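Inverse folding, one chain.
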């Protein structure tokens, strides 16, 4: 399972197409944050009728939630507000 997670991570990290698209976005003046989550399910084959199922999550940690002033402006234009931890109600 660990090898599969590493293989997926390396294939994304080594992708020239992804690197090119990210470079285009950065050249347009944007920061890029890419967070992907893979959940893989599998069943162990046994001769018995019982099946064990497992789900493996390869996310290393919870992503940081950062909101820039441009993000806030965009969300406000959509009439979406978020609770900011630095403000009290």
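Residues assigned per position:
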């Amino acid at each position: 399972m660990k090898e599969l997670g590493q293989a997926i991570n390396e294939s994304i990290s080594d992708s020239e197409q992804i690197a090119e698209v990210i470079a285009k976005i950065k050249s347009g003046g944007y920061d890029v944050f890419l967070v992907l989550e893979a959940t893989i399910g599998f069943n162990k084959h046994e001769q018995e009728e019982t099946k064990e199922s497992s789900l493996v999550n390869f996310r290393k940690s919870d992503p940081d939630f950062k909101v820039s002033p441009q993000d806030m402006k965009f969300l406000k234009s959509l009439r979406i507000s978020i609770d900011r931890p630095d403000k009290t109600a």
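The longest strand covers residues 39-43. Residues 22 and 28 are 10 Å apart (CA to CA).
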